[in-house]
Each structure stands twice: as C-alpha cells, then as structure tokens.
## 1
Amino acid sequence: MNSTEIPMVNIPLASKAHQLAGQFAAEQISADKSKQVYLNTLSVYAVSRYLKRLQVKTDLSQGDSWNAGMRLFFDVADLVLPGIGKLECRWVKPGDTTCALPPDVTEDLIGYLVVQFKENLEQAQLLGFYPAVAGTNPPELIKLKELKSGEFFIDHITKLEAARIRRRQESVIRAKRINLTNANNLASGQPKVEENNLGQWLKGIAEQGWQTFEEVFSPPVLSTAYTMREDATKDSIVLNDSIVLVVTLTPITEQKVGVRVQLHSCVEKLLLPKNLQIMIIDQSGKIFKQKPMEQDGKLLEAEVFSAQKGERFTVKVVEGDNIYLEDFFLDFHS
C-alpha cells in the first residue's frame, strides 16, 4: 500500500481531550516537552475513541501516558488493551512522510497506530498500523506508505483476542496440603520457605507436594490428619494437613499470567479457622488484600493479581503464631 491509498478514518477531538492534554502539558518544565505531551495525549485519546467505535475495550488509566512521572521523563503515548497488550499511539503532522518511533519497546507491545492531526487540532485521522515484531527493536523511523490498513489492524487484534481466550482456557490449577502446626523450622524457629517456578507449571511440571485440584479433592475423603482444641466449636477448628493452598494461573500474554491464590478446607464439615489469614507480598513489599471468607467457612482467597516474567512474590498464610510461606517466581526458560 502506498500513502495515497491509506483510507482516512476521521476522529473528532472533543473539548475533554483538549482539557486533559492541557492539564498534562502544564505539568512539564519546557515548551517542547509540553507540546510533546499535549500531542501524545491527543493521539492516545483519538485511538481510544476509534477503538471504542470498534467495541474494543481499552483502559487509559493503566498506560504510562496517563502516569505523571512517566510523562515527565519519557516520550510515552501508550494505550492498554486489557488482556491483549499495549498500543503505541504516534502522531505526525500534515505533509510528513515518516513517523518517528520511540527507542524503548513497550512490554506486551501490539504495534503502532499512527494518527495525523489537522492544523486546528479539531480532529485526527487514523493513517494506519505498524505491527510490532516480538524480540526485535523497532526502526527509528517508519515510512507512512509502509503502514497497514485499518482492516489489517482489526484482523490482527481479533487474532490476539482469540489467542487470549485460548490461553484462558489453558489455565493451570495446582493444589497442596499445608500443615500450619508444623510450618516453622524446628532449628531456627523461623518459617520454612518453599520456592516454585510458575513457568514450569505452565509446561506441566510442578515441584514436589503439588497436585492437580482433582487429585486433592476428588473423591472427597475425610482426613484423619486433624486435631481439635478442647474448646473448639463447629466453626472454629484448627486443621492439620487439611488446609489446601490452591494456585490458579491464567496466561494473559506470553510474558504475563493472572494469579489467583486460595485456601480451602478439604475436610468435609470442617471449617477454616476464623483467624486464618492469607497475604500475597510482591517483590516490592506490596501486600495484596484478602477477600472476606466465604459464608460457608471453607474458602479464603487473596485479591487476584498478575505476575510478569522475572517477577517474584510470596504467599504468606498466618494462623495465630503459625506462619507458612511459599515463594513463587516466573521464569519461562529454566
């Protein structure tokens, strides 16, 4: 396709777009940076409006372009398509024949949508799409005549969405019985820590002690490995080896997985202790909240989160003075 053949898609730029662009531009320390941020904001807004027409879900707030710190130091114009990846929204002026691309490759990058602004900035024209190639850095410049059509772009993200759905159907669930009364290291008195590579789980390989959900819960067998305090009630029971840690991985992209962590009672008619807690601690020390225990007292789960390649997190289970820890990391190459 040459540049004269690119079908123009016109996208009006409402006053709201200019208000946001002006707000973000006012935060900058130089006129050149303010202009860059203003036009970047308009380009992201225009692409988001275009995708809304196509009923493609976007999340402006999750992009670096909506992050004040990232705008201040970097040339950012990204738009997040949840569960699919990121688009770079790049702009050109009337008469331009090339478009400059940022040197840094955005994680989960889908590609680049290029828009051209009218002189009065009242509307943008979508010129076309340049797909990213995984594992390679983009060229510094692309010729506008090299852009793919809007139809190509729609087909491309449709395929990515279909791949995402297939990945979701390939979720991996692993379960492990944990013994809270024997969680501390007898020598040091400190919690023992197990380490698990979730990248291996996705290949069907799990560390010792982990089983499939069905292996742990089917058929239901009343475990004899539990004890009760003398003052225990029906809904206040300390379980030994009858609490099950369940981790569900749902691939989001090739580099990211969604993670759900739960605690189940695997003993029929026995409830989880009321003071049982589950925490997820990421490598920066952030703690994800746990949800309220299910009314039947047999399920407790933490807030669902995502983990990317190279990241680590710890699952911490607490019941009174007993602490149980499991470390997890995501490495696809080990």
Note: Residues 1-6, 220-239 have pLDDT under 50 and may be disordered.
## 2
Amino acid sequence: MITIIRYILSTAIILVVCIGAMANIHQSEQGSRMFLPMHDQRATVQKVAYENPAAEIDKTYSVFPRRSEIISEAYFIDFEIEDQETVIDISQFAYDVRNDLGFPRIQNILNTYEETIKEYANRYSFDWRLILAVMNQESRFQIQAVSHRGAYGLMQIMPLTGRDVSMALGIDGVRQPKDNIAGGVYYLWRVRSLFDVPTDIAAADLHPDDDDIIRLSLAAYNAGPTRVRDAQQLAIYLGLNPYRWQVIRDLLPMLSRRHYTLHGYVWENGRPEGGYFHGWPETVNYVDNVMGYYAYYRLIFE
C-alpha cells in the first residue's frame, strides 16, 4: 500500500512540473520579458529607454503592463538622461502622479496658483516645475496640510521659519496659500545661498553643478541646513568634496550616534553641531522623490 501511495505522489509531482514547464514555455513565446527576474526587468527597461530616449513611457515600461495603461502622453525628451536609473524613477513617478495623486489635484493647483508659483520661482531663479515637485512631496497639493510637527500649507513651512520668512517678505504670516508659496520659495532660495562655493574652492575644480546645488538645497529644506553642513564638515575631514550631493548623501548616515568615535575627531565636543541625526533615510528619500517628480514635470509641462 505504501509503495502504491509513493508511486501516485511521484507521478503527480512529475505531472505538475511538466505542466508548469510547458506553461512557462508558452508564456515565454508570448512575451519572454515578463519572466525575467526583477533585476533583469529593471535592466531591460533601462536599456530600452537609454538606447531610445524618445520612446514612450508606456512602451519602455511595458514590463509592468498594469501600470502601462495609466502612463501615457509622456516622452523621454527635452533633457539628457545621464543616469539610467533616472528612467525607472521617471516611470515610477509618472505612475504615482497619474494614479495615486491624480492629475485633477495638480491641475486645480495650477489653475489657481500657477501665476504665483511662476512669479516667485522666477524671482528667486528656480524652475517653477521644481517648486511644483517640492509642493507635491511636502503636502500632496493640500492647501491646509498640517504635519505632526506643525508644518503648514502647500510648502509645509514650520512655525519658526514662517515667522522669519514673513518678516523678510513683509507678509502677514504664511497661512494663506499664496503667502505659503512665497514663503516656501523664499526659504528654499535662502538655504540654497548657503551652498555658494568660495572662489578658491571653485578654482580647485570642486565646484558643484546645478544638480548638486538643487539636491543639497532640498536636503537642507527637509532636514535643516545644520544637518547638511555637519555632513559637509565630515566630508572636509575625510578629504572629500563637500559640495557634491553623492558625497553628502553617503555621509549623512555617519551623523548617527554609532559613529561617535569619528565625531570625536571632527568636533571638539565630540558631537555634530546639529546633534546626532538618525532621520537621514527620510531626507535621502525626500531628495530622491522631489527630483523624481521634477524630472517628470519637466516632461509634461513646458
């Protein structure tokens, strides 16, 4: 009896394996790319988009068919793709905007506040689409958004910062959407000015490009300027370029308590000026997200 049972089980397993193999072969003939491991799918998408920058997102991103139905009317044009990872980022953010956030919300903001966004972006030499990306990440375009820390409005301005920018701009607080936009853009400009490179460093071929400046500014907007400057101090101590975002990105985790031994060599009191920083993953993700939305907005808005 035991022998018969073993025979039946073995036969059943063999049949299941054979049927599965035949199904895979059939599906592979229909579209072999769908059976690539995730790593290979990503590499395939990158390769297609990089070789053909003008390819439509829905074609380039076709390894994710359920999302390709949502992504449309966007093209990889108007800017040079320097990093192939950007292709994935753009496609993902295209999906996020169209599916999770929805275009109506963006259009409502633009219909009401486009003139204000462009006015202050132009005044402080920003691409208005970058401001739109910051607004998306900060508040998801919710005019009365309030964070658990008290940040308010479209640009999520903290109370103390709100008072400072209100005095600087001569406005009555940042509770009104237009004032909130003005205050947020002004504050982003102010933190950007902290990363003006001294001429002697620029002469030493350490001058950052515009992308570095934008990312450093976004990190400071999110985590506070002191956090970024602490990371820059680490970079200087280690002989690295303190004006390159990739350097600062890699050093932000080293501001946490676990690296206290290193801190003792950099700061007299043995701690970063802004204290230990354990929220660096949020800041890194923040910068990546804003830049992803920014790249996408550059594709769909002139």
Note: The longest helix spans residues 2-31.
## 3
Amino acid sequence: MTSDKQLRANRSNGKKGKGPVSEKGKVTSSFNALKHGILSNQLFIFTGGDITDYESFSDFMECFFKEMQPVGMMETLLVDRLFATFWRLRRLHIAETGFIQKQVEPHSVERVIENIAAQGVARKDVENGFFRQMRTSTGCSHLAVSWQTVADSIQEKGLPLSVGMTRLLDEEFGGNSGFWKAANVSIYNWIVQNKGGAKPMNAEEEKRFNEIALDYAKQLSEMFKMLSDVLAIHEEETSKADVQSKMIPSPAELDKIQRYDAHLQRVLLQTLHELQRMQAARLGKPAPMAAALDVTLNSENGFVS
C-alpha cells in the first residue's frame, strides 16, 4: 500500500511536468499521434498562428487517407505523396494571394501620400499652383475652404483683406491666375485698399465692391466644393481600376507560381495513376490508362522524352 508520504511526492512530481507549454511545442508534440504521414509529417509549417491550424491539417490528412483507402506500405506512401502534393497546391494558392496582397494593400496609403505631396508642390508653385490644385479633389477641397475663409473675412470685416490673406489670395487662391472671378476679387481688394487709386471712390462704390467680392468668394467656394466631389468620384474609380490591375502577381512571381503549379500537377497525375494501377492489380482489375502523357521537349536539340 502506498504511504501518505509517497502520495504527496507523486502529487508534487505530477505538478512539475505538464507537457509542452508553448504553441510551437504543442504543434510539435501533436505529430506523435499521426497514423500516417511518413513523407508529409514534415509538411506542416508552424507560422505562429492558432494551434487549430495544425488540427485542420491533421483532420484533412485523416479524411484523405480514409477516402483513398490505401493497403500496404507502397499504397500508403503513394497516398501520402498525393496528400503532400494537394497540400503544397493549397500553400501555393495562399502564396499567390500573399503576392497580390503585397501589391494591393499599400496602394491606398500611397494614393493619400501622393495627393498630399501633389498639393504641397502645387501650393509652392506661385505661377501655376492654382490650376494644379484644381486637378485633384484634395486641391479643390483646399480651395473651397480657402475661399470660404475669404468670404467670412469680407462678411465680418469687409475689404481690404489682411496683408497675409491678400498674399494668399494672389499666390494660392487664384488672384493672379487670370481665373476671372478670383482675379476680380483681387482687383476689388486692391481698389478698396488703395481708396480707389487715381479715381477716389465714394462709400456707395466701396459697398458695391464688397458685395460683389463677397458674392464671388461664396460662388468660388461652392464651385470648388462641387468640383472636389466630382473629382473624388473619378479618383475612386481610377483607384479601383488600378487595384484591379494589380490582382495578378508580378511577372517574375507569376512565372515562379506557374512553374511550381505545373510541377505539382505532374506529380499529382503521375502519383494518382501509379496508385490506381497498384490498387487495380491488387483487386484483379485491368490497369487504367494514363490520364495524361508527360512530354518534355528540349528546345536546343529537339529531343522528346
């Protein structure tokens, strides 16, 4: 009979060893229970994901062997090779998806950065910056906000605009661009600032200049807002088309995928035919015809094998 002291020692020792603790250790130890997989037990690659990834692998293997019903070592090896080929084809498709995602996922971020960069360059281009801003939704949105700011300033304080606002009006908002409504606001601002210039203006004329300038500023803000919305739709459609054009891997990656896929398909057909031949011989049935003829042509000497 086991003494109390021995029981306590057994319990203490039992607490010390609980098997593998890490996810990788659990995956590694789970291979011990495989009934098959002489070749494919090295096929599963642990990538740090959920341990259920291996459970899916193991379940698929068990179902595969039950479906193929191999008898004897040679048939088991052939079924194992078939399973390994199927799994590699699955992994190839995952790799293809990864190649495409690598091209597509940075796309939206790059588009935003390109728009911001283009807007920054346009604002520094005193001569052509106004029209360069008009080419993008980001630029038009900036102009819409800018002209609304001009309108608010005129409505609250009237003309002339502040020195800083006047400089922005002329250099960035289109005052010196020849765009007539923007140019007219700049002209009215100059007239009021200089009290009419060579021909002094009266209070009624100053009021009229303020009203026209305010109306033009509001119209420009609305126009650029509408243009921004239209361009945003166009840019979204262009972006979608660009993404769709990236939905195949690059030529170099595609070539590797196609070569590996062709190799796996050949292995699959050859192994399947050999398995069917062996099973037919075991069951006393005629051997099936080959599903495909594998031909290799040497382009240098025309040799066919």
Note: Confidence is low (pLDDT under 50) at residues 27-34, 301-305.
